[in-house]
Amino acid sequence: MTGIEIGLITVALIFVLIIVGMPVPIAFLAVSFVGVWLIRGDFNLAVSSVALSATDSIADYLFAVIPLFVLMGLLVMAADMGRDSYAVANQVFRKVPGGLGLSTVGGNAIFAAITGVSVASAAVFTKLAVPEMLRFGYSARFAVGVVAGSSVLGMLIPPSLLFILFGILTETSIRNLFLGGILPGLVLAAAFCVLIVSWALLRPRDFGHANGGPRPPEHLLGALALIAMIAPITLLVGIVLGGLYGGFITATEGGAVGATGALMIALMKRKLTWARFWRLLLDAGAVTTSLLLLIIGANLYSRVLAMTGLPMRFGDWFAHLDIGLYGVLAVFVGILLVLGFLMDSTSILFIIIPLVLPVFRNLNVDMVWLGVIAVLTIEIGLLTPPFGISVFVVKGCLNDKCISIGDIFAGAAPFAIVMLVVVFLIACFPWLATAFT
Question: The pTM is what?
Fold first, then answer.
């Protein structure tokens, strides 16, 4: 077999193994091992390639950013900052049509700025926002849809775990990727708000007696209570993101500062016991281990692809198509959307980016712009069947058994469409992603 044929076989095998349920890192490692063996014809070389990948892939100081930001996110959840962000946003939007929906988007945007994980947002706001919206007469389909839809802000508004992984894969500045996510994240949040207000005005029956009406007085918070809720969040976001964007700290140092700050806030709010803190450390270790193993497997897989020559052949093929940058971008977005129906975000990122990276580099594409488009497009897959992990997280956290998976997918569909519109806007106006870099 030629190198190209081996490369195509390994790509197909990766897809098949992941779809049938094999853990993604194991699929990467197993297929890459066989690929090296077939290409070089040396079993011992294949074994040593796996060993070298395990050490070289994560030896860089930069990789410490992963456990630190994961721990920061877990501590933020433990400190009930999601609840606080929702309460503040709830009061701000209480008199606007669809106000509780806007509160969910606003709370998610705030929470996203201190966690960077969409699934965490979906879990937290299912418990916080859905019961409140149902109590005020909002339709169940809208309530679960807005929670699932707005949870995607967690991966776009920095700090974002997907931006970190994209930066590692493409050797792009994580700081610049974080900067690139700010304006698109705000645009997406604003687009969600426009959708909700329009929905409330056109279909007021979906919003019950809460539509446009003030909240009951007993739910209103005083100025001091609002300040007490928002101050820790503002301080944490200001220190971490301000330090990163101001150039005072690196991404890894930002993770350390953020984790320390979140720990101090959780302790001051008396939300941590030694037993709970130990569980958080174990959870952070489990998440970090799975991500690092994925990076090791993906790194070896990238090396195998380079050996086969498939990425360069892929780039030459696109060049001969003569469809231009936006033609290539349309194909790229289409591939990501299709894969989003079947796979999780990190798997898509690690499989596709090594293949298409030479293509976009030949076209002199700004990697920050590409990263924002890739992350936003991949996140649409969180809301689309059959995989739709955010939808399943919402379902798993619901106490109401009458709300079906179909209801959640239907409620999230308008938000997925809005995301696709925002992808189109960013593609047409690259400055939305590069204005701050």
Answer: 0.81
